[in-house]
Write a structure and sequence with these properties.
The structure is a single chain. The chain is mainly β and 731 residues long. It is 5% helix and 56% strand. It has two domains: 79 residues, Immunoglobulins (Immunoglobulin-like); 506 residues, Maltoporin, Chain A (Beta Barrel).
Length: 731
């Protein structure tokens, strides 16, 4: 018996001695750590992952107690090309350096909620990486998104003026906006991209097309998602800087970031001020935030995020219409926006092949518009104090399972559950009482990704139960076929097709608002809906260095909400209008060299109102509400260009946006029915004086064009900023 025990102990000791730990460090082309990468371990010659880990803030992934033998590591990290390397179990540590890729090979998240190369998503997606954002130095998201393919941004004049996004003919309310995993757009309302600061933004993804299956309400024509930078250096890194420019513009920022053992952190603050062009044109915004993570075990991690933004904007209103100053600016109206985002996210990578993400979130939004004086000449200028409070709090679970893979078949399942409670108070402080509202949404979603050789398919659906609107189901199907593998010149041809439906809940003020200024809410409103399909192809050129994409899209919008007059003269919200949009996008993406990249795109969009029951032979409607009229602020022709050089000592970018003439309205009785086309070019650049000091400069509207993005609101002429940023500590 004693001999047997000794033998067993000896066997266990030998087995433990033969087992090995494998430590993998993931770095980018500049040798900086890459956090959040999905690192999969395979036995050599098999396609089923043995283990899946996520790299820590220091870029480390560890696989424990591996048997002797040969293995294969696959790394998927947002913004880089997939990387695969052979390793041995007895390696003490290995380093895997990721590489930049063409746009179709770049790993993205938003299109499928999982890490997938862009060409396999069956969707149209564009990205801005950290290095590009640092070169562009955008004050707000509007300054960056406007140069992405298919995006049309309309800003009401100065900085801080409402900046709305129109995509594929949809309304400006049809965009889902997510920051650090939390939706920050108020359901049914236009999101203001001009007041979303991008300080400390690590990455931005922009998906065009209907995505309600994955993201629920509002994702009718696009999803914009932003992630905050994560600390990664063992030595704490302090970054700070400041810049200034014309129109009394000044900004400054500071951040402290790092990683120590199982913890990482990024604490940051930013302040921006500008006097603007003229009367009541100033804008000020302050941002504070934190992104803190902790690796609880090798398979579980907790991340806490908080972000607070506080901005104030003068509102001169409409006054200059395509170069003609028909009204005087309003000297007294201003708006104040205060928002607070907080989230806690627990991720678990276990058992083998599984990943779980549990997120609790809370988003507070308060908007106040104060106008002290009246202006009889303007329809929207009268004394008022308009106040909105919205709170969105909830919980979401997402599960992912990587199923069996082989040379000809692969599958991945994503599923989840989300519950969100929306409460709000919409009121005019001069006309009490306030009008509170509340609704509870519960969503369940499922998506299956399948690949058979050259064919890949994505199918999914979302079921929504709303306390206000009952049950809703939205499906999506996307197919992608590698039609030709190609050669050196024509390096592969993919064709794709997708069909989806989407929905958008009404805004709180449309259902729960008070009857002020003759507008009455309607508790019986239905969600707006869309039916969307698209078809396109991707042609890779010159060994994959370039990719030409062409897409046809077709959207039918119905149950659109309008305000119509009642017999008593009061306006009330109803589901009335149906409209249609179709068009085409052509996009060329390329990596001219390892450091120089180009994305240029052209979009054609045709829109039309199909039905408005209020328009009858006895009571015909006039522009812009009659059937056959085009939708406002959607240009037929638009184009963008983004040329970026990212070197070791210096970097620069040239951004261009062309927007053709488009229907618009002054709404003041001047019978102005269009906004003129315009061209805008922005320049940016930086130079590293040494490893600790960098000088930078940015010029917006470098051609000094005078134009209206929204008729009546003149855009800023040429404006510039220049400054320095400093770095202490870090690596």
């Amino acid at each position: 018996m004693r001999a047997l025990c000794v033998s067993l102990l000896l066997f266990v000791a030998l087995a433990a001695a033969s087992a090995a730990d494998l430590k993998v460090k993931v770095i980018d082309p500049q040798s900086a750590a890459v956090s959040g990468a999905q690192v999969s371990l395979f036995s050599k010659g098999t396609d089923t992952p043995l283990k899946i880990a996520t790299s820590s803030a220091e870029g480390i992934a560890i696989f424990n107690e591996l048997s002797p033998g040969n293995y294969q590591i696959q790394v998927l990290a947002p913004g880089f090309a997939p990387q695969t390397e052979d390793v041995a179990a007895h390696s003490d540590a290995i380093t895997i350096q990721l590489h930049l890729a063409t746009a179709s090979e770049t790993v993205v998240v938003t299109a499928t909620r999982t890490l997938v190369p862009a060409g396999e998503t069956g969707a149209s997606i564009s990205t801005l990486e950290n290095a590009q954002l640092e070169t562009m130095q955008p004050i707000a998201a509007a300054d960056a998104v406007r140069f992405l393919p298919g995006a049309v941004v309309n800003t009401a004049g100065q900085r801080g003026g409402i900046s709305s996004l129109f995509v594929r003919g949809g309304e400006s309310t049809y965009n889902k906006v997510i920051v650090d995993g939390v939706a920050i757009d108020n359901p049914g309302e236009t999101f203001d991209f001009g007041t979303l600061p991008l300080a400390q933004a690590d990455r931005l993804e922009f998906v065009r097309g209907t995505q309600s299956t994955l993201y629920g309400s509002d994702a009718m024509t696009s999803v914009v998602q932003v992630w905050t930078r994560t600390g990664s250096t063992p030595v704490p890194e302090l970054r700070f800087g400041a810049d200034g420019g014309n129109f009394g513009t000044a900004s400054g920022y500071a951040s402290l970031a790092g990683a120590h053992e199982r913890f990482d952190y990024d604490l940051f603050g930013n302040q921006f001020n500008s006097n603007g062009l003229g009367v009541n044109d100033g804008y000020s915004d302050s941002l504070q935030g934190a992104n803190v993570g902790m690796a609880i075990t090798d398979h579980a991690a907790l991340r806490l995020r908080v972000r607070h933004s506080n901005s104030q904007t003068g509102l001169p209103g409409e006054w200059n219409f395509n170069g003609d100053p028909l009204l005087a600016p309003d000297p007294s109206e201003s708006s104040h926006l205060n928002s607070l985002l907080g989230s806690a996210e627990l991720t678990v990578a276990a058992p083998s092949g599984w990943q779980h993400r549990l997120t609790g979130f809370d988003y507070l939004y308060r908007y106040t518009d104060v106008n002290l004086n009246s202006n009889p000449a303007s329809y929207d200028s009268f004394p008022d104090t308009y106040d909105t409070h919205v709170n969105r709090v909830g919980f979401e679970y997402q599960g992912d399972y990587s199923e069996r893979k082989s040379a000809h078949f692969a599958a991945h399942t994503t599923f989840g559950y989300r519950i969100e409670n929306e409460t709000g108070v919409v009121n005019d402080l001069d006309f009490p009482p306030a009008a509170p509202g509340q609704r509870l949404d519960q969503d369940a979603y499922l998506q299956q990704q399948l690949a058979w050789g050259r064919l890949s398919a994505i199918a999914g659906g979302r079921f929504v139960h709303s306390s206000a609107y009952g049950n809703t189901g939205v499906p999506r199907v996307a197919l992608t076929l590698l039609a030709l593998r190609g050669g050196e010149l024509f390096s592969g041809t993919r064709v794709r097709f997708s069909y989806a439906t989407g929905f958008m809940e009404p805004a709180l003020y449309e259902t729960f608002g008070e009857s002020a200024y003759g507008y009455a809410p309607n508790h019986g409103l239905l969600p707006e809906r869309t039916r969307a399909f698209e078809a396109g192809f991707e042609q890779k050129l010159f060994a994959g260095r370039y990719a030409l994409n062409a897409t046809y899209f077709n959207n039918l919008f119905h149950d659109q909400i309008e305000a119509i007059p009642t017999p008593t003269g009061e306006y009330q919200f109803f589901n009335l209008k149906q409209s249609f949009a179709q068009g085409a996008e052509a996009e060329l993406q390329g990596r001219i060299s390892s450091r120089l990249s180009l994305t240029t795109a052209y979009t054609y969009t045709s829109t039309e109102i199909l039905e408005n029951p209020e328009c009858t032979p006895a009571n015909p409607c006039s522009f812009p509400y009659a059937p056959g009229d085009p939708l406002l602020r959607r240009p037929k022709h638009s184009a963008t260009t983004l040329l970026s050089y990212l070197g070791t000592r210096w970097g620069g970018n040239l951004s261009g946006s062309f927007v053709g003439p488009r229907p618009d309205s002054d709404f003041d009785g001047f019978n102005i029915g269009h906004a003129a086309g315009y061209v805008r070019a922005d320049l940016g650049g930086w130079y590293a004086i040494n490893s600790r000091v960098t000088a930078y400069a940015n010029v917006e509207n470098a051609l000094d064009r005078r134009y209206n993005e929204v008729v009546g609101y003149p855009a800023l002429p040429v404006n510039f900023r220049a400054g320095f940023r400093f770095r202490i500590g870090g690596e």
